[in-house]
């Protein structure tokens, strides 16, 4: 009888455990599906806006930026920019714009192979005049904070440490689940943490450069409209070890950028001289036809959506980054998110009023 009761207890515990596992799997599946639905709910209005931009921008109040517009700085000789992710996709257009205007640019690649670096250098400077090719490409692996510090220390050890612009543009979207060497979810590490670490170390150089010439330096980090995906952040599972939704994790990395710019801007306001000389911006570059689109199933199934109807090419996609870095319309401002090369909201609005 005792043995029978013991067996019944073990069986009951086993069934309970199975039910708990099934319930957990169900909850995780619902979480993943809900974030996938939220992704499309966020993207559809932006698809409509991108369609308007391509077909009737004036009626939609959308500005089509030209890098030669009067509010965009044209002569950047003597200026220095660090631009991450500038050797591929959208970043190439940003780097080329800075080079055409005469800036010295340090950009990054995840590859350490000299042949790869050389081929990317040639691709970027193709057809540029010899005096507009002041470009260096340095290795940077945003999946490793040691690599980030190697990059930062390489800059600090230069003879010339002037820095007018830091643009954090490198990113990844919806990859399979992977942790960085430091134990961070890959999108959180690449899109957010690596750029935050760089920002803290490069801020003094942005400040000193601007102060020495009584101008503004700018720090610009690329976010996304998909910062709207997370309804709340799962602080107890920030690295998605328990359940991984690529859409949710991407959204967390992007809303984290908003919170960082907002918080750092508030800190700078307590140090008036820093706030006067260093301006911070984040932005949504628009829906851009880059390699990242290959991670979105509907775009691979219906390429006409991206190629013809709505999505920007990389040149058009670089507009808002160029606007954030170079437009004199933003002089004296800071702590804003830019959604086109015209529309902007102060982050107080998004984070406080919308409880982001």
Automatic annotation (TrEMBL):
Q: Which residues form the signal peptide?
A: 1-23
Q: What is the lineage of its organism?
A: Eukaryota, Metazoa, Ecdysozoa, Arthropoda, Chelicerata
The record, for SUPFAM superfamilies, names: NAD(P)-binding Rossmann-fold domains
**Which GO-annotated molecular functions does the record name?**
oxidoreductase activity
Keyword Amino-acid biosynthesis in record: no
Q: Which residues span the membrane?
A: none
> What domain of life?
Eukaryota
The text of the family note is:
Belongs to the short-chain dehydrogenases/reductases (SDR) family.
| Record has Signal as a keyword | yes
What keywords are assigned to this protein?
Oxidoreductase, Signal
Q: Name the chain's protein.
A: Dehydrogenase/reductase SDR family member on chromosome X
